[in-house]
Every structure is written in C-alpha cells, then in structure tokens.
Amino acid sequence: MALTLGGRQEARPPDVTKRNRKQRFGRQQLWIWLLLTPTVLLYGAYTVYPIIASYWYSFVEWNGFEAEKTWVGVQNYKDVLADDLFWNSFKITILFMLVVVPLKVILTLLLALLLNSPKLPFSTFFRTVYFLPVVTTAAIIGVVMQFVFDPASGPINQLLVTLGLSDGGINFLGDSSTALWTAAGIYVWKWFGITMIYWLAALQTIPDEVYEAARIDGAGAWHLLRRITIPLLKPFMIIITLLSFEAALKVFDLMLTLTNGGPYYATEVVEIYIYRWAFSATIPQLGYASAAAVIFGLFVCIVGLFQLYGVRAVQKARAAQ
C-alpha cells in the first residue's frame, strides 16, 4: 500500500504492513475460535470425555450410583472375554454386517442404474420415495415395524394369510429363527436411500461421451455395463462398501426398539449387550460394560483402518490413470 502526502505517494514501511497483517490475522483467529467455542465445548463434554471416561471405568468395578469405585485392573476385560454371551453378540454383529452390506450395496447399485436412465419417467419421484426412510428416525421405524410385523394383526401377516402363503400369523420378530433376518431386511430398507444416492453420484462422474462412443462402435446395454460402467465404478464401490460396513455396526436404536436383543439373545448385537449391562441389569455394571465397549471400539477402529486403506488405494489408482 501507499500513503499520499502532498500529492506524493510514499510506500508504507514493511514493518507497518507486516504488523497490520498480523493484527488482521489475529482478529480472524479470535472470531474463528469464538464461533467454534460452543462446538468444542459440546464435543468435548459429550464425545471426548465419555471416551476417556470409558477407558477409566473399564478398570474399576462400579454400579454408577455409589461414589466409591473399586480398582480391579484388567479383570473386567477377562470377564468380558470369558462370557459366551459377549461372543454370541459379537458373532451376531458380524453376521448381521455380512448379510446387510452385500444386499444393500448390490440392490442399491441395480436400482441406481435404473434410476440413472434418462428414459425412465418420474425418476425424481422414485428417488424421493426411496430416500424417505433415511430421514425417518430409526427408533420410530423400529416401533412402527413392530406393528407391521405383528403376528396377529400386522399387515404383512394378513397379506400372507390372504394369499394362502400362511395358515396363521408368523412371529417374525418374536421367533429366534426369523428375528435377525427380519431386522436385517428392515435395516436394508431403512438405509437403502443413502447408499442409492452414493451410487447415483458415482454414476454422474462417468461422461456421456464415453457411452456415446461405445454405442457408435456397436456396444449394447450389457457391454456398456460390463466394459464401461462397472470398471469406472470400482473405486466408488470400494468406498461405498467400506462405508456400509462401518454403518452396519451402528444399529443400536433400530435393534433396541425392534427386538431389544431378543428373543433369547438372537438379535443381541454388541451395542445391545453393552446397554444391557450398563443400564438394564438389576445391578448395573458400568465398569464391565465399559470394558466391553472398549473392546468393541477397538474393533470399530480396525474397520476404520480398512476404510482408510481403501480410500488411499482408490486415490492411488485414480492418480495412476
């Protein structure tokens, strides 16, 4: 900048300009931190502190009501790892994840391919319809589905009886042989829309010119899908699949309202197991529940590392193209 004195322009001293820049930068930083303060405080109180406290509680025996806490070291971890019900809940969590992720990823890809077609009428309407369950609270979905699958008066059972496919009501959520699969189907329907949007966004990255050039060369719909669409979607497929795996581990609200882990622990995922020991037990065991939560948290971190590895692999593949 320059100063005008008596018709002459004199350059501002460098130290003055530098000082003004520092002051302006300092004011900007002050405003940034002032605006971030509520978020930082809330995040620290409701996310960072509970995580740190869980690690501390996992080494003590505490029911959550008394002020006294008894140090037990790693005994809580030993008890959790020796509990067959914990491993049962872990197995159910893995099984649930392995069932819902392929279903959700494959079915949403097929639907996205259909909805991405410019020849399909009312495609915007169908996209909205499939996305509506996503914006509905999972707990509300669980409560509503209890009525939908009610063995006595639920519309699903009434339809089956009307079609002659069932002589009486089927207790989909109350039978240990069907409860988990019913919950898996509801989960896929609930989160179907968000994965579909991921695929639609990925399909938009493929230039139309590539398809037009292939059609000129005589390629049909199957060859377009096999030779162009699927290869170009592979990087997105890795990311969407990893995101789906991580999301499938967070089913507490839906499973709690659907089955509460029953019947006979048939749908008790690890999150329900932790909740049962921390809040539903006759005598709450927060230390024991915290140990189970820490173990499960480490497993989630491992899944997150695979996700990070997948994202980096995708970035390297795209950079090499």
From TrEMBL:
Residue stretches making up the ABC transmembrane type-1 domain: 90-307
Localization: Cell membrane
Region of interest (Disordered), ranges: 1-21
Its membrane topology: Multi-pass membrane protein
One GO CC annotation: plasma membrane
Chain ranges passing through the membrane: 30-52, 92-116, 128-149, 179-201, 232-252, 286-309
Annotated InterPro entries: MetI-like, MetI-like_sf, UgpAE/MalFG_permease
Assigned protein family: Belongs to the binding-protein-dependent transport system permease family.
Protein name (database record): Sugar ABC transporter permease
Gene source species: Phytoactinopolyspora halotolerans
